[in-house]
């Protein structure tokens, strides 16, 4: 299994300066269900860590998966998928980087 660093940037054009009552419904209808959908992935070991950047419209995660396509499939089914830009990058652990030094 490989690790993938994922950012989900909420599109500012999707929710421009919402009134408080509309913002509350977006939180209830999209953000909280997305978080609830991710919790079992963390319990199951697919989602190593996750959270949001304070004061920003970005959620960040480290996923463990067989492929980038697997990560995309999971994220495309989330309630927020229609209003976010996904950025998925493969990553290496510090141990893997250290092991590269031994090869040279």
Describe the SSE topology.
Blueprint lengths: L1 E9 L9 H24 L3 E6 L5 E8 L2 H9 L7 E8 L2 H10 L1
Antiparallel strand pairs: 1-3, 1-4, 2-3
Alpha-carbon Rg, integer: 16 Å
Write out the strand line-up for the largest beta sheet, numbering strands in chain order: 2-3-1-4
By DSSP, the count of extended strands is 4
For the report, how would you describe the main beta sheet? 4 strands, antiparallel
Into which percent range does the helicity of residues fall? Answer: 40-55%
Share in β-strands: 25-35%
Structural class estimated from helices and strands: alpha+beta
Number of helices: 3
The ordered string of helix (H) and strand (E) elements is: EHEEHEH
Distance between the termini: 24 Å
State mean pLDDT (0 to 100 scale).
83
Outline the low-pLDDT stretches.
Answer: none
Task: Name the overall outline.
Answer: elongated
């Amino acid at each position: 299994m490989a690790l993938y660093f994922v950012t989900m940037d909420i599109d500012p054009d999707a929710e421009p300066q919402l009134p408080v009552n509309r913002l509350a419904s977006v939180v209830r209808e999209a953000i909280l269900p997305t978080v609830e959908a991710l919790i079992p992935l963390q319990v199951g070991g697919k989602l190593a860590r996750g959270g949001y950047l304070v004061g920003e419209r970005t959620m960040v995660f480290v996923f463990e998966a067989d492929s980038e396509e697997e990560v995309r499939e999971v994220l495309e089914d989330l309630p927020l998928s229609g209003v976010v830009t996904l950025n998925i990058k493969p990553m290496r652990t510090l141990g893997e980087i250290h092991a590269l030094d031994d090869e040279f």
